[in-house]
Automatic annotation (TrEMBL):
Residues 16-160 form the CheW-like domain. SMART domains: CheW. InterPro entries: CheW, CheW-like_dom_sf, CheW-lke_dom. PANTHER family: CHEMOTAXIS SENSOR HISTIDINE KINASE-RELATED (PTHR22617), PROTEIN PILI (PTHR22617:SF43). This is Chemotaxis protein CheW. GO terms for biological process: chemotaxis; signal transduction. GO terms for cellular component: cytosol. It comes from Pseudomonas kribbensis. SUPFAM superfamilies: CheW-like. Gene3D superfamilies: CheA-289, Domain 4, SH3 Domains.
Amino acid sequence: MSEIIAKRSAAPVAKQALFLLFRIGNERYALRATEVAEVLPRLPLKPIARAPHWVAGVFAYRGSVVPVIDLSALTFGQPAEARTSTRLVLVHYRADDSQPSQWLGLILEQATDTLRCNPDDFQPYGLDNRQAPYLGPVREDAKGLVQWVRVNDLLDDTVRPLLFPTPPLDPARLEDLP
């Protein structure tokens, strides 16, 4: 009997993860739920002068100014449609592992469903899309393909400083500099 229990516990267990599903046009995309801080209704934004067309603006949230990008405009050049299911999704953005995460807002269409699956079900799609490095692997299901969007790859080196400028040095800490 104990051998049967040992064999059952030794069986590989598929690791499940939760994803937030959304659409750009008719195509389905997914964000890992652990990267999502909060899903908000679409809110008024203050535009940022001379920013790329896909930078939707900024808004104040819990004492912080949060930059927002329109993922539809970034990906295909067309702004997200103003639907009742269009959301402002706050994500944890991190330029690299040495930096703390910061809030980044994403305007996403039809961000109302979730998917629970094994992340290993997403497979490379055979195209090296250097213009959109945030578009990750794809997963097929009964509704077609869904593509994983990697939050930390959304911003390149040219726009990151615009949205997340380096804070000025604290004068009290200048004494600590070499």
